[in-house]
Amino acid sequence: MNINRNRNRKRFVIPLNSMSDVAFLLLIFIMLVSLINYRKEVKVEYPEAETVKKTSVEKNLEIWIDVQGVLYLNGDASDLQTTEDSIIETYRKAPETRIHLIADKNTRFEQVNMVLQMLQILQYRVVSFVAK
Q1: pLDDT at 10 over 80
Q2: pLDDT digits (tens, 9 = 90+) for 19-57
Q3: How many domains does the chain have?
Q4: 72-101 core/surface letters (b: 16 or more CB in 10 A; e: else)
Q5: Does the residue 113 lie in any domain?
Q6: Alpha helices, H only, the chain
Q7: 71, part of any domain
Q8: Is residue 97 part of a domain?
Q9: Is the pLDDT of residue 1 over 60?
Q10: % helix, strand, coil for the chain, step of 5
Q11: CB atoms within 10 A of CB 108
Q12: Mean pLDDT comparison of 24-28, 72-76, 92-96, highest-scoring range
Protein backbone atom coordinates (compact mmCIF):
# COMPACT_ATOMS: atom_id res chain seq x y z
CA MET A 1 0.00 0.00 0.00
CA ASN A 2 1.45 3.28 -1.13
CA ILE A 3 0.58 6.34 1.04
CA ASN A 4 0.93 9.75 -0.50
CA ARG A 5 2.17 12.04 2.28
CA ASN A 6 2.52 15.14 0.11
CA ARG A 7 -1.23 15.60 -0.12
CA ASN A 8 -1.64 16.56 3.54
CA ARG A 9 1.41 18.81 3.62
CA LYS A 10 0.84 22.55 3.56
CA ARG A 11 3.14 24.75 1.55
CA PHE A 12 4.60 27.68 3.46
CA VAL A 13 5.36 30.85 1.57
CA ILE A 14 7.39 33.73 2.93
CA PRO A 15 5.80 37.01 1.78
CA LEU A 16 8.42 39.16 0.12
CA ASN A 17 6.10 42.11 -0.50
CA SER A 18 6.91 43.82 2.80
CA MET A 19 10.67 43.14 2.83
CA SER A 20 11.42 46.49 1.22
CA ASP A 21 9.29 48.25 3.86
CA VAL A 22 11.16 46.50 6.65
CA ALA A 23 14.53 47.40 5.10
CA PHE A 24 13.45 51.03 4.72
CA LEU A 25 12.31 51.25 8.37
CA LEU A 26 15.54 49.64 9.52
CA LEU A 27 17.54 52.19 7.53
CA ILE A 28 15.59 55.08 9.11
CA PHE A 29 16.12 53.61 12.58
CA ILE A 30 19.89 53.29 12.07
CA MET A 31 20.12 56.86 10.76
CA LEU A 32 18.23 58.25 13.75
CA VAL A 33 20.24 56.30 16.29
CA SER A 34 23.52 57.41 14.73
CA LEU A 35 22.48 61.08 15.13
CA ILE A 36 21.87 60.74 18.86
CA ASN A 37 25.60 60.82 19.68
CA TYR A 38 26.35 63.61 17.23
CA ARG A 39 28.98 66.00 18.55
CA LYS A 40 30.15 69.13 16.83
CA GLU A 41 33.88 69.29 16.32
CA VAL A 42 36.19 71.92 14.95
CA LYS A 43 38.96 70.79 12.59
CA VAL A 44 42.20 71.26 14.52
CA GLU A 45 45.58 69.58 14.37
CA TYR A 46 46.29 68.30 17.87
CA PRO A 47 49.68 68.81 19.53
CA GLU A 48 51.52 65.66 20.63
CA ALA A 49 51.40 64.61 24.30
CA GLU A 50 53.78 62.51 26.38
CA THR A 51 51.24 61.05 28.84
CA VAL A 52 47.55 60.17 28.51
CA LYS A 53 44.66 60.73 30.93
CA LYS A 54 41.07 60.02 29.87
CA THR A 55 38.07 61.89 31.29
CA SER A 56 34.33 61.34 31.03
CA VAL A 57 32.73 63.04 28.05
CA GLU A 58 29.42 63.83 29.75
CA LYS A 59 30.87 66.34 32.23
CA ASN A 60 33.01 68.37 29.85
CA LEU A 61 32.77 71.88 28.49
CA GLU A 62 34.90 72.09 25.36
CA ILE A 63 36.58 75.33 24.25
CA TRP A 64 38.10 75.02 20.77
CA ILE A 65 40.56 77.48 19.22
CA ASP A 66 41.36 77.06 15.53
CA VAL A 67 44.43 78.27 13.62
CA GLN A 68 42.93 81.73 12.98
CA GLY A 69 42.20 82.17 16.69
CA VAL A 70 38.41 81.79 16.36
CA LEU A 71 36.85 80.58 19.61
CA TYR A 72 34.28 77.77 19.64
CA LEU A 73 32.23 76.66 22.64
CA ASN A 74 31.09 73.03 22.33
CA GLY A 75 31.46 73.28 18.55
CA ASP A 76 29.58 76.59 18.06
CA ALA A 77 31.42 79.83 17.20
CA SER A 78 31.62 82.13 20.21
CA ASP A 79 33.38 85.20 21.54
CA LEU A 80 35.28 85.63 24.80
CA GLN A 81 32.39 87.26 26.71
CA THR A 82 29.84 84.61 25.68
CA THR A 83 32.31 81.89 26.62
CA GLU A 84 32.88 83.49 30.02
CA ASP A 85 29.13 83.75 30.67
CA SER A 86 28.65 80.13 29.66
CA ILE A 87 31.45 78.96 31.97
CA ILE A 88 29.92 80.86 34.89
CA GLU A 89 26.49 79.38 34.19
CA THR A 90 27.92 75.87 33.82
CA TYR A 91 29.82 76.22 37.09
CA ARG A 92 26.66 77.29 38.91
CA LYS A 93 24.80 74.22 37.65
CA ALA A 94 27.61 71.66 38.01
CA PRO A 95 30.83 72.72 39.76
CA GLU A 96 32.55 69.42 38.89
CA THR A 97 32.41 70.19 35.15
CA ARG A 98 35.82 69.89 33.51
CA ILE A 99 36.86 72.41 30.86
CA HIS A 100 38.75 70.97 27.91
CA LEU A 101 40.88 73.51 26.08
CA ILE A 102 41.48 72.24 22.55
CA ALA A 103 43.72 74.35 20.34
CA ASP A 104 45.35 73.68 17.01
CA LYS A 105 49.08 73.13 17.37
CA ASN A 106 49.71 76.09 15.03
CA THR A 107 47.48 78.49 16.99
CA ARG A 108 49.28 81.56 18.30
CA PHE A 109 49.87 81.37 22.04
CA GLU A 110 48.27 84.80 22.56
CA GLN A 111 44.90 83.32 21.56
CA VAL A 112 45.25 80.47 24.05
CA ASN A 113 46.55 82.84 26.72
CA MET A 114 43.40 85.01 26.47
CA VAL A 115 41.28 82.00 27.42
CA LEU A 116 43.71 81.00 30.17
CA GLN A 117 43.61 84.51 31.66
CA MET A 118 39.81 84.43 31.63
CA LEU A 119 39.84 81.06 33.42
CA GLN A 120 42.38 82.40 35.90
CA ILE A 121 40.18 85.42 36.68
CA LEU A 122 37.21 83.09 37.16
CA GLN A 123 39.45 80.91 39.38
CA TYR A 124 38.38 77.82 37.47
CA ARG A 125 40.58 74.94 38.58
CA VAL A 126 39.41 71.94 36.57
CA VAL A 127 40.98 72.62 33.16
CA SER A 128 42.52 70.10 30.77
CA PHE A 129 44.61 70.69 27.67
CA VAL A 130 43.61 68.18 25.01
CA ALA A 131 46.41 66.71 22.90
CA LYS A 132 46.85 63.79 20.54
Answers
A1: no
A2: 888 889 999 988 888 777 666 777 777 667 666 666 666
A3: 1
A4: bbbeeebeeeebbebbeebbeeeeeebbbb
A5: yes
A6: 19-36, 80-93, 109-121
A7: yes
A8: yes
A9: no
A10: 35, 15, 50
A11: 13
A12: 24-28
117 to each of 33, 70, 77, 123, how far by Cα in Å?
40, 16, 19, 9
Burial zone of 5 (CB within 10 Å; 0-12 exposed, 13-18 middle, 19+ buried): exposed
Domain that holds residue 118: 60-129
Average pLDDT over residues 3-17: 69
* Of the candidates 66, 67, 57, 71, the residue with the CA atom closest to the CA atom of residue 128: 57
Query: Which residue type occupies 60?
Result: N
What CATH number should be reported for the domain holding residue 99?
3.30.420.270
Yes or no: say if 61 and 100 are a contact pair by the CB < 8 Å rule.
Answer: yes
Q: Are 24 and 60 in contact (CB under 8 A)?
A: no
User: Is 16 within a domain?
Assistant: no
Least confident of 34-43, 67-76, 114-123: 34-43
45 CB-near residues (< 8 Å, 6+ apart): 104, 105, 106
Cβ pair 107, 67 in contact under 8 A: yes
